[in-house]
Specification:
21 helices, binds alanine, Amino acid/polyamine transporter I, mainly alpha, 501 residues, globular
C-alpha cells in the first residue's frame, strides 16, 4: 500500500492553504463585490459570515480531512458511506471553477505583458471589450477563439499540470513557498504607493462607510456568504483535501484561524489599494468615486487600467498589479485542480500522474468555451450559479449533515486533541444553529428570487443551460460516481509520532 503523501513542513501547509484562499477572489472579485453590494454595508454581513461560518467551517474541514485522511468523497464516505456524493459534488464544483478560473488568470497574464507598453491605451473599456475579448452580442454567438487568451490559457494549463504532476511536496508546497512571499511583497509595495495618493481617502471612505439600507437585502447577505466560501476555499473540497496530507501532530484550530484571518486581511489590503486608486482617479477627474468605477468583472480590467494610466510610473504599477493577480490566481488554481484530481486518485486507485494528465487535457478542452468571443457572458453565468447555489447549498448540506446527523463532538474532541488552543462550544453553536439558519433562509430566498428574474438580464436559454443545467449535471454525476466501483485505499492510522521534519 502506498503511503499518502504529506506536507514537509508546517509553514509549507499554511502557505499552501493561504495560497489557495488568496486568489482572484481577493483581488478581482472582492472589490467589485463590495462595490456592487452597497460599499461598506457589504462588510457587515461579510465579517458576520467570516466569524460564524468561515472560520468554524475552515476548522471543521481541516479536522475531517485530517481525521479521515481523504479527498472530499473519501472523507465523506468514511464519515458515512451514504454521503460520498457530497464530496463528489464539491470535487466537481472544483472542476467547473477550474475551467473558467484559469481563463481569468490568462487575462491577467496578458495584461501583465500589456503593461510594458500600456497597451490598453486611453480607452481601456473599448480595449478590453472590443479588442481583447472581441465580445460577441450574446452568449450563443461563440464566434471563434481569441488567440492571446488561448495562448495564455494553454501555458497556464501546462504549469498547473507540471505542479500537480510533481506531487504534494515537490509540486504544490514548493510553488506556494515561492509565490506567496512574492505576492505579499508586491501587495505591500502597492499599498505603500496607493494610500498616499491625493484623493485616496475619498475612495477609502466609500469602501468603509456602511450603507445600512443595503444590509437588509438578502442578496447582499448571499453575496457575502458566497464571497466568504469562495475566498476561503471552503465547501468545495479543497481544504478537506489539503488537510488530508497533514501529519498526525498538526495544529488544526490555530492553522484554520490564521488562514482565515490572513485571507480576509489580504482582501482588505487589496480593497484599500484599489479604492485608494479609484479615489485618486475620481479626484483627478473631479467626479465622485461612484462614477469612476464599472462594477462586475470590469473593475480590474477596465477601471484599474484607466486609473493606472493616471499614476506616476504607470508601467511599473500595472506590471505589479497584474502579476500579483497571476501569482494569487495560480496558487489557487493549483488547489482547485487538486480538489478534483485527488478525488479520482482515491476512488479508483489510479496513479496521480495519469489522473493529473487526463484532468489537464480535459480541463484545457472545456476551458476553450471561455476563450470564445462569448466567453465572458458564459463565465459570468457559470460563476454566479456555481457560487450562489453550487457552493452555498453543498455548504448548507455539509454543516447540517455533519452537525445534526453525525457526532460533531467527536470532531471537536479531535481538534482539541491536536491543536495549540482548544475550541469551545461556540463552535458547535455556529455550525449547528447559526450557519444553517442564515444559509438556509438565504439560500431559499435567493432561489426564489432567481426564479422570478433571470440573472444578469440574460435570456432563459442561457441561464438554463449554463446555470441550472450545469448544477443539475454536477449533482447527477455525483450520485453516479458514488455508485461506481471503488478502490478506496485503507485508512492508514496516523502515527502520533509523525511530525513535520
Ligand atoms: N479561494 C480562491 C479565491 O479566492 C478560489 O480566488
Amino acid at each position: 500500500m502506498t503511503k499518502r503523501e504529506e506536507w514537509a513542513t508546517r509553514i509549507g501547509f499554511v502557505l499552501s492553504a493561504i495560497g489557495s484562499a488568496i486568489g482572484l477572489g481577493n483581488i478581482w472579485r472582492f472589490p467589485y463585490m463590495v462595490y456592487s453590494n452597497g460599499g461598506g454595508a457589504f462588510l457587515v454581513p461579510y465579517f458576520f459570515a467570516l466569524l460564524t461560518a468561515g472560520i468554524p467551517i475552515m476548522i471543521l474541514e481541516f479536522a475531517i480531512g485530517h481525521k479521515y485522511r481523504g479527498s472530499a468523497p473519501l472523507t465523506f464516505f468514511r464519515i458515512c458511506k451514504k454521503w460520498e456524493w457530497l464530496g463528489w459534488w464539491q470535487s466537481l464544483v472544483c472542476f467547473v471553477i477550474a475551467v473558467y478560473y484559469i481563463v481569468v488568470i490568462s487575462w491577467a497574464l496578458n495584461y501583465t505583458i500589456f503593461s510594458f507598453g500600456l497597451k490598453w491605451g486611453d480607452n481601456p473599456n473599448d480595449f478590453f471589450m472590443k479588442q481583447f475579448l472581441n465580445i460577441s452580442k450574446s452568449p450563443w454567438e461563440f464566434g471563434g477563439l481569441q488567440l492571446n487568451i488561448l495562448l495564455g490559457t494553454l501555458v497556464l494549463w501546462f504549469f498547473v499540470w507540471l505542479v500537480l504532476f510533481s506531487g504534494v511536496r515537490k509540486g504544490i508546497e514548493i510553488a506556494n513557498k515561492l509565490f506567496m512571499p512574492l505576492l505579499f511583497v508586491m501587495i505591500l509595495i502597492m499599498l505603500g504607493r496607493s494610500v498616499v495618493l491625493e484623493g485616496a481617502s475619498s475612495g477609502l471612505n466609500w469602501l468603509f462607510k456602511p450603507n445600512f439600507k443595503a444590509i437588509t437585502n438578502y442578496k447582499v447577505w448571499a453575496a457575502a456568504y458566497g464571497q466568504i466560501f469562495f475566498s476561503l476555499s471552503i465547501c468545495f473540497a479543497i481544504m478537506i483535501t489539503y488537510a488530508s496530507y497533514l501529519p498526525a501532530k498538526s495544529d488544526l484550530a490555530n492553522n484554520g484561524t490564521i488562514t482565515s484571518f490572513i485571507n480576509c486581511g489580504f482582501s482588505m489590503l487589496a480593497g484599500i489599494v484599489i479604492f485608494s486608486i479609484l479615489g485618486y482617479m475620481a479626484n483627478q477627474q473631479g467626479v465622485s468615486v461612484k462614477e469612476v468605477a464599472s462594477s462586475g468583472v470590469g473593475l480590474a480590467f477596465i477601471t484599474l487600467p484607466k486609473a493606472i494610466n493616471l499614476l506616476p510610473f504607470p508601467k511599473f504599477f500595472g506590471f505589479l498589479f497584474f502579476l500579483s493577480l497571476v501569482f494569487a490566481g495560480f496558487t489557487s488554481m493549483i488547489s482547485i485542480s487538486e480538489g478534483c484530481c485527488s478525488a479520482f486518485i482515491d476512488k479508483f486507485g489510479w496513479d496521480r500522474r495519469r489522473v493529473v494528465t487526463i484532468f489537464s487535457l480535459i480541463g484545457a478542452l472545456v476551458s476553450l468555451i471561455f476563450v470564445t468571443r462569448s466567453g465572458l457572458y458564459i463565465l459570468d453565468i457559470v460563476d454566479h450559479f456555481v457560487n450562489n447555489f453550487g457552493i452555498i447549498f453543498v455548504g448548507l448540506l455539509e454543516v447540517i449533515l455533519i452537525s445534526w446527523f453525525f457526532d460533531l463532538e467527536s470532531i471537536r474532541a479531535h481538534v482539541n486533541e491536536v491543536s495549540d488552543f482548544r475550541i469551545g462550544r461556540w463552535w458547535n453553536v455556529c455550525l449547528k444553529v447559526i450557519t444553517p439558519v442564515v444559509l438556509g433562509y438565504m439560500g431559499v430566498a435567493n432561489f426564489i428570487g432567481e426564479l422570478k428574474k433571470y440573472y444578469g438580464g440574460y435570456d432563459f436559454k442561457s441561464v438554463f443551460i449554463f446555470g441550472w443545467f450545469v448544477l443539475v449535471l454536477i449533482i447527477v454525476i455525483s450520485f453516479l460516481l458514488q455508485h461506481s466501483k471503488s478502490r478506496w485505499p485503507k485508512l492508514q492510522l496516523l502515527n502520533p509520532q509523525t511530525r513535520y521534519k
